[in-house]
Records
---
Amino acid sequence: MTKFFTAGLVCALLIQTASADNTIRASIRPASSREKAPAFTLMNASGHAVRLSDYKGKVVVLNFWAVNCGGCRLELPSFVDINNSYKSKGLAVVGISMDISYEDLKDAKEAWARVNPFLPAHHIDYTILMGDSVVEKAYQTDALPATYLIDKDGRVAATYVGVVNKDNLEANIKTVLTGR
């Protein structure tokens, strides 16, 4: 049994009893106390390498998720909306699928076989990358969903572990987009 399975089960149980008010809110860290976001190079569905550094100068919403994670599925429409609303303003939404470890799959090919049909069915049109154990450790991802708001300088401005509160995330995005 994977750690994500256990965390996913707990998350699913919480979601069943949660109302819209039980989503996760985060405060923006002061710029002086923000830590550099861990660098990564991951593959997209086409097999192209994508690096966090490719987004230098942009604000990034980095979301760790899995196809069968109930909380992840609840928040994905928020990321689609946020991507559509803010991509022209300097924001990039990047999803990192953790399906390999979440489902105990043997490799990325097996994971993409689950992820690829899911994306158009849920209107996900932002960048999706396949996660690995290196990025999982670097971001200390012990539960899904997990989301990091990264500022234009590549530093973590806010962290959400659990289903994000869309209004809070949008307010934080607006703040970080202004350079604060």
---
Amino acid sequence: MNINTALSFDAIEFNLGIDSLTSSKGISTGVLDPTKGMYWAWHSGFINLKLEGKSNLSTTKKQFFQFNLGGFRNGFYNLQTIQLNTKKSLQINVSVDIFKFLSSIDLQKENHIMTPSKHAVELAKKAVTMFSIKN
């Protein structure tokens, strides 16, 4: 990413997920095309974070876990805004530490979320902690 050296900033901000206006429009094209596997249905919206895998901590039959976090309706609004403090630099590296997110979850008790819910919103808030600036 090229940065104009005349710019002054102390943070970057981005969203984890799709805003409610875009979600309410439904099926789209490009990266928002439903064939990409990140869209539930018109009433549920897009999956903002999909994390699936296998862990010996999971109590499911084959030790799988599945977290598909999303939703845009009132009460289940899953969009998270991430703000990271940074210094002006010609290059900014954003690090994603998935272990930080997974270690905040008891995979023996919770290992499967596939629909919008209050619990999905709680996990989406925890997911924000995965992101940091890597020096």
